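Dear Dr. H.,

I hope your travels went smoothly. While you were away I took the liberty of generating a structure for the chain from your last submission, since the lab meeting agenda had it listed for discussion. I wanted you to have the full record in hand beforehand rather than looking at slides cold. The sequence, exactly as received, is reproduced here:
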Amino acid sequence: MSAGPQMSPEAYGKPVVGEPRLISVLLVVDMDLLRDALVTLLSDQQDMEVVADLKCDDNVVAVASRLRPAIAVIDIDQPGSRGLKLVYDLRDQMPATRVVALAAAKPPGLVQQVLTAEVLGVVDKHTSAERLLHAIRGVAKGSQVVDVNLAVAALSAGPNPFTPRELQVLRLAADGASGPEIASRLSLSKGTVRNYLSKVMNKTCARTRIDAIRIVREAGWL
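The corresponding predicted structure, in token form, is as follows:
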């Protein structure tokens, strides 16, 4: 089990003249067992080096800003859309770092969101090691690599039925905020917050707010 964020000494140095440049990879995976296995897999490749292996809550953007990896492999299947938010943050703040997202076919809404985030690599978490290595090498060259089953899943999800504001209100509700607290944070009236939550409940055919949160999460939109 990893003791915490690990960074290679080479990450702070410069490549030796005449040696081929390695593909520097930043790993962001919360599950220790999976992260350790990926570190071993990538470290065994002659053309790759793992410059850091982190969890989603390890101040990833700051580490990436310092190390400037060529590739960030991110497990987006995280509670509360943490993995997806990290993809957006890296895209906006570290555009030179290309993302390979690890995803599952379900929930399809999450896959669709990561595809619309202009991510070059989207790989099924249940794929083979060779497929992941192929994706990393392809994305490092600027190619788009998306597993077919994930693309099909994204298409099957249909368009996102919720507005950004509805999801913003629902996300705060899912975090435990009350109606008045949501209204205060978003500078909305209490009645407007109730209307947004009612719209979400109508769209999901949910009887309660808790049911609505569960349904939207299971669909991958939250």
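Two observations you may find useful: Strands lie at 6-7, 23-28, 48-54, 71-75, 98-103, 121-124, 145-146. The CA atoms of residues 126 and 182 lie 38 Å apart.

With kind regards,
E. W.
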